Amino acid sequence: MTLDLTREDRNMLEGGYDPGVAMAMSIITRMAEVSGAACLIDISAAHIDSALFMGDATLEFAERLVELGAKVRVPTSLNVSGLDEAGWREWPVPEAYAEKALRQMAAYQRMGCTPTWTCAPYQTEFRPQFGQQIAWGESNAIAFVNSVVGARTERYPDLLDICAAITGRVPAIGLHLLENRRGQILLRLEHVPRSMQDSSIFYPVLGTIMGRAAGERVPVVDGLDITPNEDQLKALGAAAASAGGVALYHLVGLTPEAPSLQAVFQGLLPEEEVKINEDLLVTTYRGLSSASGNRLDMVAVGCPHFSLAEFQQLVSIIKGKRRHPDVQFLVTTNRFMVGKAWEAGYLDALHEFGARVSLDACILTSPMLPPEIQVILTNSGKYTYYTPGLLNRQVFLGSLEECVDSAVEGRLVREDSVWNR
Ligand code: F3S
User: Fold this and answer.
1) Res. 291: pLDDT tops 80
2) Which of 9, 153, 353, 387 has the highest CB neighbour count under 10 A?
3) CATH fourth-level superfamily of 298-420
4) Is the CB of 364 under 6 A from ligand 1?
């Protein structure tokens, strides 16, 4: 298919603006040709993952764009950074790494991006609206904004995301188009007790099942008896995007593009149907913990970044408790949300409990973990999925209550619940 460019597209491509714009446009048009797009469309916002230092090439790319005068054309937020700008010296982050990570962070800000430094931009002022065409990076953010908000983004990989922000144009493909947003695979909950659906651990586990079954297809879940809160949907999408490549999911009767089964499949039949029962959920949950025994070195929560509601929930659970000196307790969030938590008076309670709050990064994106931390308990399906392979550490998956109780006892503590029988 021939790519049809507008006069303004050609102007950007042929040097009508700074050379940085031409460079970004040449990458966008090449990607459009490779993906078979007929044309480009406007976006009105972007979220950039490329500001994370991933090696010299990512830094060179950013600094080259700055040298060439590139500036973003649309409101643009930034995903997690390579380090906590204010607190990285409290962790064993190598100086040489920090110097480059900070340069890369500065380059994106010089291009006009807003230093939100969060993988949960949908819980900030940068949350888009239903139907808005946007270009977002970061898999959990893409899943949330497509599914829960109903904005439209493809999966933007590093480097392409900033080119979209600089040009304000993207190929008209994939999830930007209504016909590609229909459900493809149906997941039916069968006799799953309401108590199970109510538990927070249900969402990373269901997300894992969704991701494994759907791969990169669009899953539709039918049969939920409760209305999950926003943080549960965040956990669901993050796990589905990690265990598979889910960029959009629908929950029948709950998410904005799924008023009914017929509507969500756009009148077509699902390609496949999968039944989800209590046994599959419990088996999947057990398989997500790679660690064994009850030794524990750290509890890590805040993946995706902790919200104000999650701070509130944690503070209510830790009341009157103190963590064991042998187990660290880490909360990862961003500067915006920690400001809100401070205003709400939550940080003193966390301090008294013995928790640490790290800003703008996370244990997977920053080389911050000391070597003695080998076994981690988390409530995050995404941390559970990536930590063994990327950090060579072992993990347990558990509820937030189990995270707190285990940190207090200094060893893994399980609740007496349907998940652990
Ligand atoms: Fe965010 Fe890091 Fe998790 S980027 S989604 S806290 S792995």
Assistant:
1) yes
2) 153
3) Aconitase, domain 3 (3.30.499.10)
4) yes
